[in-house]
């Protein structure tokens, strides 16, 4: 994994799925990580950050960048991660890289080829995005959307058939609806974002788009919260309006 100037040491985290993840990277090949399944995401994050800084011997003042998954997934987790990342980036005066959690999942699949990230969205839906990650490329076939599992399966089948490539699926949505999706290809064993995937996705953001103004970063919710909101779930007017609870 190539190093990018001005990125390391990096502190990064993702709280979008049931497995909360935090990591600190001294360089592309040396990192420490902590992960735990808990709904108490804020109670996990800051103690994990303190522990990682202490164990790595890296001070907060020597960090060069912050990375954070911005969803989709748990409404509470996304909000906590984005708020923490923006605060740290602004307070320390360092760049912020904020890939989607769908990107992070896909980046964590080895021998990737054609990869579909599927995150359980509850309410009988999945968040879905398909990537061509073969030959070192990383290209989206579709914009991230909230779809019913049957709609997602039809989309994946059409893309795989048109591309003429085998499909691999990753994420909690693929595991929860395994019976449906397993007919389309292989399901990656790990359903949650990995430290390697988080690091690769942050570096991809850094190389492709550069850092973002921390005040401009917004969570990727993809649909309205359970309390209401008009428009079809996953439609453009609902993006940034809310998300699944938890």
Strand content: 15-25%
Overall pLDDT, averaged? 89
Counting DSSP H or I runs of 4 or more residues, the number of helices is: 7
Count of discrete structural domains: 2
CATH top-level class of the largest domain: Alpha Beta
CATH level-3 fold name of the largest domain:
Nucleotidyltransferase, domain 5
What's the alpha carbon Rg, rounded to whole Å? 17 Å
Largest sheet: 6 strands, mixed
β-strand number: 11
**Measured distance between first and last alpha carbons:** 34 Å
Range of helix content? 25-40%
Low-confidence stretches: 227-243
CA-based shape: globular
List SSEs in N-to-C order: EEEHEHEHEEEEHEHHEH
Named CATH architecture of the largest domain: 2-Layer Sandwich
What's the CATH H-level superfamily name of the largest domain?
ATPase, nucleotide binding domain
Determine the structural class based on helices, strands and strand pairing. Answer: alpha/beta
Tell me what you see in this structure.
- By secondary structure, the chain is α/β, with parallel strands linked by helices.
- The protein folds into 2 domains: 10-100 and 193-238, 2-Layer Sandwich (Nucleotidyltransferase, domain 5), CATH 3.30.420.40; 102-187, 2-Layer Sandwich (Nucleotidyltransferase, domain 5), CATH 3.30.420.40.
- The chain has helices at 41-56, 75-92, 101-107, 149-163, 172-176, 178-181, 195-208, and strands at residues 10-14, 19-27, 30-37, 65-68, 96-97, 113-122, 125-133, 139-140, 145-147, 167-170, 186-187.
- Strands 6, 7, 8, 9, 10 and 11 form a 6-stranded mixed sheet that branches. Strands 3-2-1-4-5 form a 5-stranded mixed sheet, sandwiched between helices.
- The two termini are 34 Å apart.
- The model is unreliable at 227-243 (pLDDT under 50).
């Amino acid at each position: 994994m190539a190093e990018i100037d001005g990125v390391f040491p990096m502190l990064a985290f993702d709280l979008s799925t049931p497995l909360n993840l935090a990591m600190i990277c001294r360089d592309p090949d040396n990192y420490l990580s902590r992960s735990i399944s808990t709904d108490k995401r804020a109670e996990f994050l800051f103690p994990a950050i303190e522990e990682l800084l202490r164990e790595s011997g890296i001070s907060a003042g020597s960090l060069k960048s912050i990375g954070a998954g911005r969803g989709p997934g748990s409404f509470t987790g996304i909000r906590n991660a984005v708020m923490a990342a923006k605060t740290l980036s602004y307070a320390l005066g360092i760049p912020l890289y904020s890939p989607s959690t769908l990107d992070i999942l896909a980046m964590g699949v080895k021998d990737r080829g054609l990869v579909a990230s599927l995150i359980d969205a509850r309410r009988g839906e999945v968040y879905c995005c398909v990537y061509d990650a073969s030959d070192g490329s990383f290209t989206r076939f579709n914009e991230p959307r909230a779809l019913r599992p049957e709609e997602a399966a039809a989309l994946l089948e059409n893309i795989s058939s048109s591309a003429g490539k085998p499909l691999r699926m990753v994420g909690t949505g693929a595991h929860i609806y395994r019976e449906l999706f397993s007919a389309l290809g292989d399901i990656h064993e790990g359903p949650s974002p990995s430290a390697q995937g988080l690091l690769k996705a942050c570096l991809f953001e850094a190389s492709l788009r550069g850092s973002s103004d921390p005040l401009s970063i917004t969570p990727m919710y993809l649909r309205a919260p359970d309390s209401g909101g008009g428009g079809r779930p996953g439609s453009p007017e609902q993006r940034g309006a809310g998300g699944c609870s938890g």
